[in-house]
Amino acid sequence: MSAAQQKKSRRNLLMVVGAFVLPIVLAKLALTQNWLDYGVTNKGQLVENELTLSDLGISSPDLNKMWLIMYALPQECNVECEQTLLSVNNTYVALGREMPRVKNVALYQQHLSSEQLSQIDIDKWSVLPTPTNTHPLIQQPTVLLVDPLGNIILEHPLPANDEEQALFGKGILADMKKLLKYSKIG
């Protein structure tokens, strides 16, 4: 081989090796330098500590083997609370053909007024008192997503204003649809 051919073959070899090594090096740098957002697809916050309905002291036979959208109501259910009840109910209705797999649960701390009870369709909601041995997670008003085995998976903090209310319902709907799509239970 002539010197020119050797130089050309080495250059080709380096280009082939570079084509395979360069993407690996760039990917490693992207991961270590946090250039990319990590693949978070859920809208709510994952509940980090293992928590079940039995840990909360909630047991009801009609809640078994169903996905739950559980709303821990505040002490006094004001306008924002009623809007959240309506938003959760609309989310449930938006599930469409998946509705039989899901049940809405309202955990109240004080008895609800007749106006508030009119917001809740008893056929679609289970209204339960908040257990006496409450967990810190449900001491504050929040919406929790629970799997059919009774594990609390996601928490959706309540919206602070009217603009966030629409996004709140859409976030719960997106999470529920994804959970129901990938789940074979419940």
Descriptive notes:
Helix content is 44%, strand content 17%. The chain has a six-stranded mixed β-sheet. The model has no long low-confidence stretch (mean pLDDT 84). Strand 3, helix 4 (114-119) and strand 4 form a beta-alpha-beta unit. It is α/β, with parallel strands linked by helices and 186 residues long. The protein contains six helices and six strands; from the N terminus they run αβαβαβαβαββα. It has helices at 3-32, 53-56, 79-94, 114-119, 136-139, 162-182, and strands at residues 45-46, 67-72, 102-108, 125-129, 142-146, 152-157. It folds into two domains: 1-39; 45-182, Glutaredoxin (3-Layer(aba) Sandwich). The longest helix has 30 residues, at 3-32.
